[in-house]
Amino acid sequence: MSAVLSMRNVGVSFRTADAAQPAPAVDGVSLDIHRGEIFGIVGESGSGKSTLANAVMGLLPPNALVSGSIRVNDREVVGLSDDALRSMRGDEVSMIFQDPTASLDPTWPVGDQIAETIRAHYPVNARDAKARAIALMGEVGIADAAARYGDVPHRFSGGQRQRIVIAAALANNPQLLVADEPTTALDVTIQAQVLQLIDRLRRDHGTTVLLITHDLGVVSMVSDRVGVMYGGRLLETAATRELFANPSHPYTRALLAANPAGAPRGTRLPVIPAAWNIESLREAELLRAAAGAVND
Amino acid sequence: MTETASTPIAGGKIESHRHSPKRLMLVGGGILVLLALIAIAAPLIAPHDPEAVEVHRVLGAPSLQHPFGSDVLGRDVLSRVIYALRASLMVSVSAVLASLILAVPLGLAAGYFGRWVDSTISRTLDLILVFPAMLLAVTFIAILGPGSVIAAIAIAVIYLPILARVMRTSTLIVSRNDYIAGSRARGASHLRVLATHVAPNAFGPVIVQASVLSAFALQLEAGLSFLGLGTQPPTPSLGGMLADGREVLIQAPWVEIFPGLAIVVAVLGFTFLGEGLRRAFDPRGVAE
Amino acid sequence: MTELLRVEHLRKSYATALPWGRKPPPALNDVSVVVERGKTLGLVGESGSGKSTLGRCILGLTRPDSGAVIFDGVEVQALSGRALAAFRRRVQPVFQDPFGSLDPRWPVGRSVRESLDCFGIGTPADRERRVLDLFDRVGLNPALAGRLPTHLSGGQRQRVGIAAALASEPELIIADEPVSALDMSVQAQILNLLMDLQQDLGVASIFITHDLGVVEHVSDNIAVMYRGSIVEMGETEAVMNHPQHDYTRTLLAAIPRPR
């Protein structure tokens, strides 16, 4: 099996005006994701999971410093020019985000937005592009797709909008789909449907998916393997079932134990120890900032 | 939940360094403080009586004694510019302040209480917006007669709906926060919620807007005085001086140039201040 | 078991933007619930189910179109002036967003003190002391009382929100998604705090959430809301293990669990 996405010792840090030695947001991450696999990355806020996703897409701001190697289909992404990145984003990888409204133009018919993406990648005429867009809308589960082709985004519910964003992301037949918190803004029942959709697309098209989420439940539902991130580092990777049954890292164990869904009713939940507690770190940081302000 | 939000901010920080809001505010504020000082201290610093006619100095070129020259009646242009600045700033600033005093409570009430309070206030104020500003001012003065007080009132009325609308919008945004509902639940009366939570948090955009509108107010006042509808001669006003200088533009350009420059500098001051304030206090862009 | 709150046949519709527009479904459609003293009612539903509107109606922040909210035997809509203030003292909210629930310009200690000031509880010196006690009670360093919300972490802010709700010694807390904006590690701490407070102070609560895992953990009873109506209500075990309504079953099936 060849790896569609392969990372070796990836590090990302952000230059800021005030810090001489920028703290890394991502630090020494190595992993391989194979064809047709759904790989979930879980982490709390500040774990670096979204930064990692943006590094794969080449979507980091200009002050980001990326080190190590990120290869998509054996092509190095780190150090690629903006033009090359843009063409890579169009041809091989697509990304979907938490907020589907932000990815859609509110004044444009959704069908045209999908057709536009298709025409940007394939030399097809307007009619074929429209037919393909309707087919895609049908495939992601928009009922009566031909009739809804001309509707603007706000005529759709949040779940349907996310489906449309997924349809647009599939327009170029990407080999890798990066999904950053794709269901966080959705209701639970809708979330389940969208996750099933992602799972089905993977089975039908062999699309490889990098799924970024804070929700252990979400990764458990669809991922084949899971990586747990904390403080910019990938603490462990394991097959999903294995990770939930036998978490090897103490942070993963603490995270699983803190989930109220598994604990007996009304009992105190085990709290993540201070060393792994993102909150304690943040409070310490705020304290340092306050002390610094006093010294100034 | 995601950390993406922090990254673009880190990126933007470096880019926006050149025109930092602080610097804009300092420059704009500095200009305005200087102009205000000049206006306040006019009787002390003006070298001559602005209304003293000197026949032998008619259209005199700038000299050491009269650095800005003298006008058709031989009056010292520098002294007149100083006094005119005083009159113009007085009219524009008091007009905007008067407008603010009415607009803030109206906008607060409309945005906070909503429903019929909102529609009554908003629709009434919309009536004013229907007319172009200058037309409204001229109509106003046609009814009440020319003069600087009337001009100030006209400008205040013109700006009332704009400022009230900005205040209403920012009140709407602030009112949606849970701390407003929470404050009600913690026993605060509507008046108390408005005074302690809503007004302080909703104030930024309207201050920005007021600063920007002051620049326009200054121009509007100059325009009215130019047409002879604002400040009445012999009291010097920047617009009135422009009107005087127009006829002698070729022979004695200084009569026209210096009051014109004063307008430009004052308008720039308000605009810089407004833009700086906008970036600092109105990141959402509520003010227009 | 004594009844603290009874909601009867509550109805509420929001006006549409245009008078001739299509009428939206009512936010609340004949909703009735009961909360017993010291117990927790979990109110579960997805966005637009009306669960937050119900919370606001009980708090007296939104006026229902019809129906009654009866707190400790007294109908809340009929209250005004002093009696309304007395009721407000006894029912307090905790909100979801730890950013939006605290005034960004107020030091957090002042937010906690707000209800003491408004209800006129104690002398100013008493209030000062009580604020520090409350900080202690919710596990916050009292030295943080002078800080602005932006200088606190999300979990700390939520603790401040809880302290503000406890200040007037309420008998019922309406918590609207109090942990959904928090990271997992923080969520556990806040849930523990809420359960401790309930045990120590005997406060009843309505816990509004979309998260069945959370609600199952903290509630004595569960009410499931769907499109403005309560479709199922009962003891937590019964609802979770033997759901009667189709929607409840769909909701339970949608909970992400390891395959």
Automatic annotation (TrEMBL), chain A:
It comes from Kaistia soli DSM 19436. GO terms for molecular function: ATP binding; ATP hydrolysis activity. This is Oligopeptide transport system ATP-binding protein. The keyword tRNA-binding does not apply. Keywords: ATP-binding, Cell membrane, Membrane, Nucleotide-binding, Transport. It is a peripheral membrane protein. It comes from the Bacteria. Belongs to the ABC transporter superfamily. GO terms for biological process: peptide transport; transmembrane transport. Gene3D superfamilies: P-loop containing nucleotide triphosphate hydrolases (3.40.50.300). Coiled coil: none annotated. Residues 7-256 form the ABC transporter domain. PANTHER family: DIPEPTIDE TRANSPORT ATP-BINDING PROTEIN DPPD, OLIGOPEPTIDE TRANSPORT ATP-BINDING PROTEIN APPD. Pfam families: ABC_tran, oligo_HPY. GO terms for cellular component: plasma membrane. It is found in: Cell inner membrane.
TrEMBL record, chain B:
GO terms for biological process: transmembrane transport. SUPFAM superfamilies: MetI-like. Residues 85-274 form the ABC transmembrane type-1 domain. The chain crosses the membrane at residues 24-46, 89-113, 125-143, 149-167, 254-273. The keyword Aminoacyl-tRNA synthetase does not apply. GO terms for cellular component: plasma membrane. The keyword Transmembrane applies. Keywords: Cell membrane, Membrane, Transmembrane, Transmembrane helix, Transport. It is found in: Cell membrane. Its main location: membrane. InterPro entries: BP-dependent_transpt_permease, MetI-like, MetI-like_sf, OppC_N. It is a multi-pass membrane protein. Belongs to the binding-protein-dependent transport system permease family. This is Peptide/nickel transport system permease protein. It comes from Kaistia soli DSM 19436.
From TrEMBL, chain C:
One of its GO terms (molecular function) is ATP binding. Belongs to the ABC transporter superfamily. Its main location: membrane. One of its GO terms (cellular component) is plasma membrane. InterPro entries: AAA+_ATPase, ABC_transp_ATP-bind, ABC_transporter-like_ATP-bd, ABC_transporter-like_CS, Oligopep_ABC_C, P-loop_NTPase. GO terms for biological process: peptide transport; transmembrane transport. It comes from Kaistia soli DSM 19436. Residues 5-252 form the ABC transporter domain. This is Peptide/nickel transport system ATP-binding protein. Pfam families: ABC_tran (PF00005), oligo_HPY (PF08352). It is a peripheral membrane protein. It is found in: Cell inner membrane. Transmembrane segments: none annotated.
